[in-house]
Amino acid sequence: MLGVIGGSGFYSFFGDDARRVQCDTPYGAPSAPITIGTVGGHEVAFLPRHGEGHEYSAHTVPYRANMWALRALGVRRILAPCAVGSLTPDLPPGAVVVPDQLVDRTRDRADTYFDDGGVHVEFADPYCPTLRTVVTGLPDVVDGGTMVVIQGPRFSTRAESQWFAAAGFRLVNMTGYPESVLARELEMCYAAVALVTDLDAGVDVGSGVKVVDVFAEFQKNIEPFKALVHQAIEQIDEERTCTHCLPHEGIQLPFELP
Question: EC number(s) in its UniProt entry (predicted)?
Answer without folding.
Answer: 2.4.2.28
